[in-house]
Specification:
The protein is mainly α. Helix 4 crosses helix 6, helix 6 packs antiparallel against helix 7 and helix 9 packs antiparallel against helix 12. The longest helix has about 35 residues. It is globular, with a radius of gyration of 21 Å. The two termini are about 25 Å apart.
């Protein structure tokens, strides 16, 4: 009873924090807009300047929604990977899905000079999202085929890492033969971005994200069983192969679509599950799944705020900010290893 009360209190605190940081994120930026005007713009009221409404509705609001989707999606993916592989240092990118997405974008941007007539596609968000999704799907298909051929879960982890290394090698070859302009565009994509999506692109992003999240309902119970090992899970009647494939599909859908639309964003999926476990002091996935989503959204919103502080003349790469958050946390977790929950 006391523990349930503790969970409720923690959830109330993080939900209130999410709401406050959400409005703070929308309020801050290179253009100073009063909070009252921001709220009025969100509810379609009368604002002092029409330009303020345009900035809030067409730029800051989609960016804040994207931050929530990216933060929660990567955090859930990280939690699933750490549970499946029973490895505290597993993250959403260990399957090579992100590398596959990067390869798709690299082939589009860096290989565009080899194929005439599609240069305009390389400079569109939809073009890069499609290329990244296709690359992620190809790697996902290869990983799923491999997963059905091997019995050992750790073998899948190694296979995923090998796919990541293979795609990175191909990207390195493309980079070597690319022009300075192509290389610059690919590097900018690799920095990650939350603010480049239109409402139509965000709609596609949200639909695919919701498909991945909805599949979580099918695996919440098996996830707790996997914490004690596959043999224990089998003794409870859990279909290990089906559960493993579902986890791989969910992680791939979320990681693939996030990388496609926002670029490869590091450390969030690795660090947030551990932070959440320390806050809630539990390994119960019925508690962790919603908690990880909220904490991930909060951290991504904070990272976005830092990247666009009003005192800064330029917007910092979101990937750099998340790494500044994530790296010290991971180092601390390694030093205090006995505190890690699996």
């Amino acid at each position: 009873m006391n523990q349930q009360k503790s969970y409720t209190t923690s959830f109330i605190i993080i939900i209130i924090s999410l709401v406050i940081i959400w409005f703070l994120n929308i309020s801050l930026g290179s253009v100073d807009i009063p909070l009252k005007e921001v709220i009025t713009s969100l509810f379609n009221g009368e604002v002092t300047k029409d330009s303020w409404r345009n900035i809030v509705v067409n730029y800051r609001l989609p960016k804040a929604i994207t931050a929530v989707l990216v933060g929660s999606g990567l955090s859930i993916s990280g939690l699933l990977m750490q549970t499946l592989f029973r490895n505290p240092l597993a993250g959403p990118f260990v399957l090579g899905i992100s590398s596959g997405a990067s390869l798709g974008v690299a082939l589009l941007i860096l290989g565009v000079s080899l194929i005439g007539g599609i240069s305009s596609l390389a400079f569109s968000n939809f073009g890069m999202a499609f290329a990244a999704s296709l690359g992620a799907f190809m790697v996902l298909s290869a990983v799923l085929i491999a997963a059905n051929k091997v019995r050992n879960t750790m073998s899948i982890l190694i296979i995923g890492l090998m796919f990541g290394s293979l795609t990175s090698a191909i990207i390195s070859v493309l980079i070597y033969f690319s022009s300075a302009e192509q290389l610059q565009q690919f590097i900018f994509w690799g920095f990650g971005s939350l603010g480049n999506l239109s409402w139509s692109e965000l709609s596609i992003f949200s639909i695919i994200y919701l498909i991945g999240i909805s599949l979580l309902v099918l695996i919440i119970k098996p996830l707790n069983s996997l914490l004690l090992g596959e043999n224990y899970a089998k003794s409870l009647g859990i279909n290990i192969k089906k559960t493993r494939n579902l986890i791989l599909v969910i992680t791939s859908i979320l990681t693939g679509i996030i990388t496609a639309f926002s670029g490869p964003i590091a450390f969030v999926g690795l660090a947030v599950p551990h932070l959440t476990k320390l806050i809630f002091n539990t390994s119960n996935h019925k508690v962790l799944i919603p908690a990880v989503m909220i904490v991930g959204a909060i951290l991504m919103l904070i990272a976005d705020i830092i990247s666009q502080l009003p005192s800064l003349e330029y917007m910092l790469p979101i990937n750099a900010i998340t790494s500044l958050f994530g790296a010290p946390i991971v180092i601390w977790l390694l030093i205090r290893k006995r505190k890690i929950y699996i």
